[in-house]
Write a structure and sequence with these properties.
The chain is mostly helical. It is built from ten helices and seven strands. It has two domains: 7-142, Winged helix-like DNA-binding domain superfamily/Winged helix DNA-binding domain (Arc Repressor Mutant, subunit A, Orthogonal Bundle), CATH 1.10.10; 146-268, Up-down Bundle (Four Helix Bundle (Hemerythrin (Met), subunit A)), CATH 1.20.120.530. A hairpin with a 3-residue loop joins strand 6 and strand 7 (139-142).
Length: 273
């Protein structure tokens, strides 16, 4: 299915002081589970320019907005449960919503300015992914098994990332060799954040030249917290060393550096429960 753009429709509101942070985020390269494609920076800056709200670079929550004035719709005017699912997923992974916490349809619908239908769609999607448990007549709660699942996913991602770095070095960066250093410098110039440093890992996966590995990484990354605790500035330093090892064709060094980089990241990252 071709990805659709996201439009923000403002509704008249007399509320001027109620500013709420909305976690509108999607991976920069991996497809989301919904039919929408979101570029966090472009979306937030566009909305901020039109509404006078402030865009906060580097904040994983994405944008500071008055949710009472915001409706999420696709070009056909249909509300999207995918956007709500993505927001809740981020809140769960970051630890802002903890295991056993109730997810009340009415409250979520009010926060997004939508009916309860897309909220139900979002919760059903999150249940299928293992983030949410839904019990008839009792409603939805955040899964209490996420701590164990996140730990296991971090272990899987770690192994895949190290392998990707080794293969990328064997290929000396492959088709994206010229981009590896460029994306490091771009992240450094933009005041490093989790969002500006993540594209480097996407490039390493591409440089590995293994489509199956890349798909597996994309699947894991949709379900696990990414770089939420590690210092983004330190990440840029790590990435520069990794890029050098990859471009020099040193698989052992690249694998070692990726292993050390991820250990620091995982030591600080929330486990989602």
């Amino acid at each position: 299915m071709m990805a659709k753009d996201v439009r923000f429709h403002q509704r008249p509101s007399t509320t001027t002081g109620s500013i709420i942070t909305a976690a509108v985020h999607a991976p920069l390269t991996a497809a989301t589970h919904s039919s929408f494609a979101i570029h966090p920076t472009r979306v937030t800056q566009t909305y901020a320019a039109r509404s006078g709200c402030s865009f906060v670079p580097g904040d994983r929550s994405g944008v500071t907005i008055d949710r009472s004035r915001l409706q999420l719709v696709n070009p056909d005017g249909e509300s999207s449960g995918g956007i709500i699912a993505q927001t809740l997923r981020e809140e769960i992974l970051s630890g802002r919503r903890v295991g056993g916490e109730r997810l009340v349809e009415e409250s979520i619908a009010k926060a997004f300015g939508v009916s309860r239908v897309p909220v139900r769609e979002a919760l059903a999607q999150l249940q299928a992914e293992g983030f949410v448990t839904i019990v008839r007549y009792r409603g939805a709660t955040v899964s209490t098994t996420l701590h164990k699942e996140n730990k296991e996913l971090l272990e899987v991602r770690h192994g895949l990332e190290v392998l990707a770095a080794q293969l990328a070095a064997k290929n000396r960066g492959g088709s994206v060799a010229a981009e590896l250093n460029a994306v490091v410098e771009q992240a450094r110039a933009q005041s490093p954040t989790a969002e500006t440093t993540r594209p480097f890992h996407d490039l390493v996966a591409i440089a590995a030249g293994n489509d199956q590995l890349r798909e597996m990484l994309a699947g894991v990354n949709r379900r696990v917290a990414w770089g939420l605790g590690h210092d983004p500035g330190a990440s840029v330093h790590d990435h520069a060393a990794l890029a050098a090892a990859i471009l020099n064709g040193s698989p052992v060094q690249a694998g070692f550096l990726m292993d050390e980089h991820l250990r620091r990241d995982e030591a600080d990252a929330p486990r989602g429960a």
